[in-house]
Amino acid sequence: MNLGLLVASADLMLMISAGVSVAASVLVVSWPYFVRDHLSTRMAQVANERERIRLRERAKLNQRTRQFALRQEPRKAFKDIVDRFDLAKQLEDGELVRKLRMAGYRGQGPVITFLAIRALAPFGMFVLATAYVFVILRLQHPLFVKLGITVAAAWIGYYAPWIYLKNQITKRQEAIRRAWPNALDLLLICVECGMGIESALGKVAAEIGTQCSELAEELSLTTAELSYLQDRRKAYENLGERTGLDGVKGVVTSLIQSEKYGTPLSHSLRVLAQENRDMRMSEAEKKAAALPPKLTVPMILFFLPVLFAIIITPAVIQIMGMK
Fold first, then answer.
1. Residue 294 belongs to what H/E stretch?
2. How many CB atoms lie within 10 A of CB 122?
3. Three-state DSSP class for 139?
4. Above 60 in pLDDT, residue 66?
5. Over the stretch 135-171, which tens digit does the pLDDT of each residue have?
6. How far apart are CA 216 and CA 203, in angstroms?
7. Is the dihedral of CA 103, 207, 240, 272 positive or negative?
8. Cα separation, 177 vs 22, whole angstroms
9. Strands (E), the chain
10. Burial of 241 (C-beta count, 10 Å sphere; 0-12/13-18/19+)
11. What is the pLDDT of residues 233-271, one digit of tens each?
12. Which of 50, 240, 244, 289 is least surrounded, with the fewest CB atoms within 10 Å of its CB?
């Protein structure tokens, strides 16, 4: 009796299993006919994404170009000065243009302004120094001493624009260097989420703008160049050239290799982000280690005399009181 029940139960389980298997097979075979395939739609969206980005960035770039042209109209006086002093040849100086781009000044307008200021600054400083020495102070010194002061002022006026430009480059590079590891982390997250490099750079530029507007500007410009330049490699190289930082150039090299050979970008970005963060930490440790030698001279000049005065003054007072 029990044996018959077991056999019946086994047969029932086999029948149920066979029925479930047949139903599953029928469902798997007929599934594409019941569920719509969105693969072709997604492929079309991915194919059109780059074109939409190109059109959007071109519209933004055209708007910026119009605004930039309106801002440059009042600088017509500078252009007249450049033409009068025959400085038009220096407009094609690649080194000067590169330095101005590194400082955040782009286009022909800043070049004309820089050349005009560098031409006018020596004359202005010479006139001011002459008026100050000969009219205001009326120094009772030999004439060659007074002329030497005015010539030195004119020399300072000639090199002052270069000094200002170098300071701007240094400040801009320092700001980008501090924010670059965080930007790489954000770029890594965007790439690993499946975003394209143009969309990832645009997203990082929008997010990093509150921390470093200079880096956000450079990334936005790179996104625009990726949209309208024929050679995408040139857009990456321009990013490294504008910043002038080794960390940025390393990432640019990885991006170029990924574009050319199709290598995975996430692993390279993770390694480079860690390296840049280690470099930033090592620079902080270096500055911290350099503090004790720098504090030695102030301590000798300001702390030790006061300490000696506090220690010796009571003894001196007691000796004077004993007399």
1. helix 291-298
2. 18
3. coil
4. no
5. 787 777 777 778 888 888 889 888 898 999 999 999 9
6. 10
7. positive
8. 63
9. none
10. middle
11. 888 888 888 888 888 888 888 888 887 887 777 777 888
12. 289
Helix (H) or strand (E) holding 85: none
Which residue has 């055209």 as its token pair? 62
Residue 70 has pLDDT above 60, yes or no: no
How distant is the alpha carbon of residue 140 from its chain centre?
Answer: 53
The tokens of 82 are what?
């450049």
Q: Which of the 8 DSSP states describes residue 199?
A: H
pLDDT above 90 as % of the chain: 3
Q: Would you say how long the chain is, in residues?
A: 323
**In the predicted model, is pLDDT for residue 58 greater than 80?**
no
How many CB atoms are closer than 10 A to CB 51? Answer: 10
Q: How many Å apart are CA 32 and CA 141, to the nearest integer?
A: 100
pTM, rounded to two decimals: 0.65
How would DSSP label each residue in 88-121?
GGGGG-HHHHHHHHHTT--SHHHHHHHHHHHHHH
Tokens of 15: 């029948």
Express each pLDDT in 71-114 by its tens digit. Answer: 444 466 667 676 666 666 666 667 888 888 888 888 777 888 88
CA–CA gap between residue 70 and residue 120 (Å, rounded): 24
Q: How far apart are CA 316 and CA 149, in angstroms?
A: 50
* Per-state percent for the chain, helix, strand, coil, to nearest 5: 90, 0, 10
